[in-house]
Amino acid sequence: MDYISNLFVNLGNSWTTLLSSFLPPWAVTLVNFLVVAVILVMMPVVATLTLTVMERKVIARIQNRIGPNRVGPWGIFQAIPDAIKMLTKEDIVPANADKPVFNIAPLLIFAGAALLWAVIPFGRGMIGQDLNVGVLYLVAVGSISTIAIVMAGWSSNNKFALVGAFRVVAQLLSYEIPMVLAIAAVVLLVGTMKMGQIVELQTAPFILVLPAAFIAYILAAAAETGRAPFDLVEADSEIVAGYMIEYSGLKFGWFYIAEYGNLLAVSAIATTLFLGGWRGPFAGQIPALGPLYFITKTVLIVFLLMWIRGTWPRFRIDQMLALAWKVLVPLGLFTLLWVAVVIKLPVPTFVQWALSLGGNLVAIFITLTIMGRSAKRYAQKHALAGA
Amino acid sequence: MQSVIFAILAGITLGSALMVVTSRNLLHSTLWLIAAFFGIAGIFILLQAEFLAVVQVLVYIGAIAMLIIFAIMLTRRIMDPQQPRFNSQWGLVGGFTALLFVGLAAVVTRVAWPVAAGEIPADAIAQLGADFVGVYAVPFEIASVLLVVAMIGAIIIARERE
Q: What is the total count of domains within chain B?
């Protein structure tokens, strides 16, 4: 029973014991690191195989359709024929493409998606490497994808690809700021950048302490993953598919895998920072429940992002930039300043957290009021309904 | 073990740096520069300075390399391999570069670099942050004023004329 209650950590210990019986210590460390690395690198692939089906089902229901329903019960194996189709496609490289750059870009974007998983805590003690700069590492790894996208867009020697790449960079650089501000509010509140430590100290989910930061993070995450309503980076009807237009076969597959890997990763980060990670009822006594709570919360965030995708029309590029710079950045700056003031007050932690919640709610209220007024003014000016 | 890893990282950094100056295509030069930055980040990790490694990736690869790529892409005909690689000022620039190299080499070889003994403190980042707003507050603030000046300058240049 004890073994079951902390199943994953005990499995790991048994595995290490088994290896130690016939391998020297350095080889045990090496093999263990390799096993963890392989598991974490597989996460984007797992995300693609599961989330594509989920996304198609969810979007279909929102659009009053059924979605995939032919392969397996309720179409749950739909991802497998899709993957086989992708693998059997012809690999085409445009004649005037910059070949080395064109070929490296898909690998680099996948590396960016896979590296994120190194610091995500699935449960107590279930983390690739609890870096003491964990949160900053996540932000830094995100910048690798930007480079990869610019490489892809430029090397394809296609104007749509280049326009798409420029749009991506404008979007990613703009939304990195509200995202970092939201993350910084959490880091300031707990006083650590270790992902494992952030979950340990999160006795109440931070969505209840920093709701404004959570909203800013989710919107920034939707933009960073380039999903609708922020999908103007690959807008099919405007620039065909943006930076990945010239890619086919498995090279396109890498972009696809990175996209879904990033979707799952930003949801897992949101879970860790704002929803208490692996915390939940009885997770303290039975640590094996931790990963289950973690996955459940992550899938809930994924569902939220799919819901947003299924119900909002695409932004124009000026609207997208205005939302980042005129709404989310001021909101994030205010939240950060408010947290900095609150944590210096000589009152117990729960009072600080309550004050933080109050300040956040006021900030959300003021933001929505200003946005509502400006929308009303716009409607009056253009004689639209709702004035 | 450490010296082997250092040799590999130094090889990556220097090899990439060599490619930066020999590559004919300017965008390839930038990509090699990114590889060199990665090599330096690796050396920081080897020195157990994870914070500096992450900042190296964030600032140099995420921001500065990106800026260089944009500057190259937005400059017309700069990537054309038919363009001459040298202009009339190459002698002057070469002279100054040689002078700079000699100066740096003299500093690196002559200064006795102090090596602190003992363990690296566990909360080096907290120490760094405290020092920035404590002991080194003035240089830190001057650096931020410089950045603000640069930002205002960029806005004034980019602003539409009325």
A: 2
